[in-house]
Amino acid sequence: MNLSFTPPTPLQPRKRAILVGACGGLGTALTRKLAREGWNLALVARKGDCPGALSAELNADGVVRALAYEHDVNNTGEVPALLKRIFTDLGGLDMLIYNAGINLPPGMEKLSAEDDIQMIEVNLLGAVAWLAPVSDLFKDAKGGTIVGISSVAGDRGRITNPGYNTSKAGLTTYLEALRNRFTRHGVHVLTVKPGFMATDMLRASAGPKPFTVTPERAADGIYKAIRRRKQVMYTHPIWRWIMLALIHTPSVIFRRLNF
């Protein structure tokens, strides 16, 4: 069955957003949060059953708030046509959230170039494929919001996961460059830096997990940051001070740390 979004009315205006990486954890929490706040949503994810089920949940009362689109972010060549299709379905665009990401820890014995390349392709190159054309759309429209889900892991290169650190550092820098380039055109760019979050990925990992937050708490904080037009936000405020200390730790000390 072909669905179309329930049109806005003067009493019920509805902004429009794309969520790339809409399935599971933070993606699902952000989707539900935006739906509650009255947004029309294009849910983009690799697993075809997940965005479909999530959109069905949000549309259960007969109001079409979300449509599902299957897309693997590794297939960057698909983005122009898919973005055009979504833009038409939504009737415009007010926000893009790039939440797709993978983490493949290598362990301490041997690095995997294949895994590191895969993380960079998904976490950084997949993001660029969406962020660049949407930034130009928003420049022409003189407004719009871009949200990139980076990580505290991108603030410093560490011994445990060089590929992941690199992918998130690259994303953080790219988002900063977009902010500097497009703020003058009315475009808001928010960089989100989660620490530990209570997801399946975290539960499967070893080691201590201080200052863990739920995806729902993180989604609430991200939405507040969007509303306040923040530039950078950490999903737990203490990470700002932890990372400030780590960033300013001299290399001669930092390279001896075991994390």
Which tags fit this structure?
259 residues, seven-stranded parallel β-sheet, 9 helices, 44% helix
Structural write-up:
The longest helix is centred in the middle third of the chain and has 29 residues, at 113-141. Helix content is 44%, strand content 14%. Strand 4, helix 4 and strand 5 (144-149) form a beta-alpha-beta unit. The protein starts with 15 loop residues before the first strand and ends in a 5-residue tail after the last helix. The chain is built from 9 helices and 7 strands. It is an alpha/beta fold. It is globular and about 60 Å long. Helix 1 (25-36) crosses helix 7 (215-227) and helix 4 (113-141) runs parallel beside helix 5. A 7-stranded parallel beta sheet has the order 3-2-1-4-5-6-7, sandwiched between helices. The mean pLDDT is 90.
In round numbers, the mean pLDDT is 90
Helix content: 40-55%
**How many E-type strands?**
7
Major sheet attributes = 7 strands, parallel
> Can you tell me the overall shape?
globular
Order of helices and strands: EHEHEHEHEHEHHEHH
Report the uncertain regions: none
Question: In angstroms, what separates the terminal alpha carbons?
Answer: 50 Å
Q: Could you give the order of strands across the largest sheet?
A: 3-2-1-4-5-6-7
Structural class: alpha/beta
Tally of separate helices: 9
Give the radius of gyration: 18 Å
Task: State which percent range the strand residues make up.
Answer: 5-15%
